[in-house]
Amino acid sequence: MENKRKKVDVVNKFTGDSWAYTKEVKEHFFKPKNILWENPKEAKYDAEGIVGSPACGDVMRVWLNINLKKDTITDFKWRTFGCASAIASTSMLSVMVTEKGGMKIDKALKIKPQDIIKRLGGLPDRKIHCSVLGDKALRSALNDWFKKTKQFSRIVVDGKQIIDPNTKTTEADIEEAVLEGATTLLAVQKRTKVGVGFPECLPKVEELIRFYREKYFGADVKS
Ligand code: FES
Questions:
Q1: What is the pLDDT of residues 94-138, one digit of tens each?
Q2: CA–CA separation, 79 vs 77, rounded Å?
Q3: Using CA of residue 175, residue 181, residue 183, residue 187, what is the dihedral sign?
Q4: Is the pLDDT of residue 187 over 50?
Q5: Distance from CA of residue 109 to its chain's centroid?
Q6: For a surface tag, which of 61, 102, 154, 219 has the fewest beta carbons within 10 Å of its beta carbon?
């Protein structure tokens, strides 16, 4: 009876799972800031980034204008067909990056998903993989900017490094598994088969799980 009276926004009819969104999430979902309803003409923006979510197949695009002299982001526009959490998180990220006259690029590169989630007053754990789409698209757009302006040493390459040569599991595969809720070695192995026939890689896998668990879910999440 207690649970029935608890305030929820979404109920999964098939599993019975339910969750609620904060006031800030609803504000940014129902009135998203800096969103574009149409793809813009290319020349209007200095850089563009695009990423897809392996977890759900949704796509996020980000366009930036940058002040070359000050090395700041002066405009951040975005467009997605993702869910409420993807929309609210990217809307909040766009505000964070452009408020106070525009954030320095080096500072924007240090933004963690947990910083955005904190400003949103929290997100359900199952939705954290949606919240990283805007952040990843921002990095992709900044890499586009670094290429266009020949700042090659600033390009940040995503973790494509192979951790287990037998199963061809990469660092990015471990990251995706953690984002989808596999926060223990056993759960990650169930999804990726990492370490089967190559147990030497397991200490590195455990280290990566710890790293991504903390990055996306915060330091105090239970393993
Ligand atoms: S379920 Fe696809 S972005 Fe949230």
A1: 999 999 999 999 999 999 888 999 999 999 887 888 888 999 999
A2: 7
A3: negative
A4: yes
A5: 13
A6: 219
pTM to 2 decimal places: 0.78
Substitution site in 58, 125, 131 for ligand 1 pocket (most atoms within 8 Å of beta carbon)? 58
Contacts of 146 (CB under 8 A, 6+ apart): 152, 154, 155
Nearest C-alpha neighbor of 76 from the set 130, 116, 118, 129: 116
The one catalytic residue among 60, 66, 87, 130: 130
Q: Residue 176's pLDDT is what?
A: 87
Answer yes or no: is the C-beta of 82 below 6 A from any ligand 1 atom.
yes
Q: What pLDDT is stored for residue 222 in this prediction?
A: 56
Single-letter residue type at 147: K
Residue among 198, 51, 68 at smallest CA distance from 138: 51
The alpha carbon dihedral of 131, 136, 139, 141 has a sign of negative
